[in-house]
Specification:
Layout lengths: L2 E4 L7 H12 L4 E3 L6 E5 L3 H11 L8 E3 L3 H7 E2 L2 H10 L4 E7 L5 H4 L4 E5 L4 H10 L3 E2 L14 H8 L5 E4 L10 E4 L4 E4 L5 H8 L4 E2 L1 H4 L23 E4 L3 H9 L7 E5 L1 H11 L2 E4 L6 H17 L4 E5 L7 H11 L7 H4 L5
Parallel strand pairs: 1-9, 2-9, 4-7, 6-10, 11-12, 13-16, 14-15, 14-16
Antiparallel strand pairs: 2-3, 3-8, 4-8, 5-6, 6-7, 10-11
Helix pairs in contact: 1-6, 10-11, 12-13
The site of threonylcarbamoyladenylate (TXA) has 29 residues, from strand 6, strand 7 and strand 11.
Length: 352
């Protein structure tokens, strides 16, 4: 049985937080909202329950979890926050940014996958923070999605995925950003996973240059991954799904040259959706206007989930500039399409 508790996102009701926290304290699994995506969490010191999270998600066991904290003190108690970064981190947390640091506390192997480092994040979400405070322990939580599937960014999707499989689901508002937090390896000062906190913003906050890992950019393949989770297929729909690299007008031209295009759906900006629907009358999934890339990030996973419900032969998504949040968007698109670009099998169906 899963208890579903509706909680106000901006002013969480104390008694309801207490009810959800009770599950964490008693060795249960609770799905909760954060500003990035929904998370599926347990007491970070409870190896047995954390192991259950892996089962429920069908997650590879060598992929460690993020430990969520509610204060800088709690963070520094579980990991070693380098002194030189203390002031900046105190200033920028809570926010959608996760730091990989050396562990201080001994964690169950399920949480850190036996590594000597731990991923720590203080979520900027009243419900998540209140839940951690009331539970009295750091909460280990991966994103709320079965392995390989797009992450739940709202309670309904979390319920669809996990009702009956976890102890409690907090039903609150849709996640503000819609993509997972930025992950920084503090020792090497590298972005391992791009997210809402952009490299430009990190450089401004820390006053120094940050490297963006090639995997984070999607330039090299998974096996050389440093952040273990980056090596798995992710966020994928069941429908064959391709990235079109190039301008939308080139896609229109290419499709125009094909005799019989199998029924497809286009995913992209409002501007491109209008063009595609005019040109082909195809189904379109509108992620929002290009002038607000945060809106596009927010709608991305829901868009990918929607694709499967359209029952088309394939989906094609357009590319976005890899600047700011665009880096996170393209990282997720490359994974969701498994690095498959618009295929020759379709291109070769040319008009004679
Ligand atoms: O926004 C988020 O970060 C969400 C919400 C729920 O907070 N959580 C999330 O967790 O995205 P998850 O498990 O889906 O992604 C965690 C990533 C994985 O790629 C994992 O490999 C990496 O963090 N990670 C965890 N511990 C690590 C470590 N010690 N060194 C390198 N990467 C690590
Ligand atoms: Mg995940």
């Amino acid at each position: 049985m899963t208890e579903i508790i509706k909680i106000n996102a901006t002013a969480p009701e104390k008694s309801k937080i207490a009810a959800a926290a009770k599950y964490i304290k008693n060795g249960g699994i609770v799905i909760f909202p954060t500003e990035t995506v929904y998370g599926i969490g347990a007491n970070a010191f409870d190896g047995n329950t954390c192991a259950k999270i892996f089962k429920v998600k069908d997650r590879p066991v060598d992929n460690p979890l993020i430990v969520h904290v509610s204060s800088f003190e709690m963070a520094n108690d579980v990991g070693v926050i380098p002194k030189e970064y203390t002031d900046v981190i105190k200033k920028i947390w809570p926010s959608p940014i996760t730091f990989i640091v050396k562990t201080r506390k001994k964690f169950p192997k399920e949480v850190t996958a036996g590594l000597e480092t731990v991923a720590i994040r203080m979520p900027a979400h009243p419900v998540a923070l209140a839940l951690i405070i009331k539970s009295g322990v750091p909460i280990a939580a991966p994103s709320a999605n079965p392995s390989k599937k797009p992450t739940a960014t709202n309670a309904n999707q979390a319920i669809k995925y996990f009702d009956g499989k976890v102890d409690c689901i907090i039903d609150s508002e849709r996640s503000f950003f819609g993509v997972e937090s930025t992950i920084i390896d503090l020792e090497r000062f590298v972005v391992l996973r791009p997210g809402p906190f952009t490299p430009e913003e990190i450089e401004r906050a820390f006053g120094k240059k940050i490297k963006v890992d090639k995997i984070a950019k999607g330039e090299i393949n998974a096996e050389q991954a440093i952040s273990p989770g980056t090596k798995y297929r992710h966020y994928s729909p069941e429908t064959p799904f391709y990235l079109f690299e190039g301008q939308i007008d080139s896609l229109i031209e290419e499709l125009d040259n094909i005799e019989q295009v199998p029924e497809f759906a286009f995913i992209g900006s409002s501007e491109s959706c209008t063009k595609m629907s005019k040109a082909f009358g195809c189904s379109t999934i509108d992620l929002g206007g290009r002038s607000n890339m945060y809106e596009i990030a927010k709608n991305l996973y829901d868009g990918i989930i929607l694709l499967d419900s359209l029952k088309v032969k394939f989906g094609v998504i357009e590319e976005f500039d890899e600047e700011g949040i665009g880096l996170a968007i393209m990282n997720r698109i490359r994974k969701a399409t498994s690095h498959k670009t618009f295929p020759n099998e379709i291109r070769n169906l040319k008009k004679v």
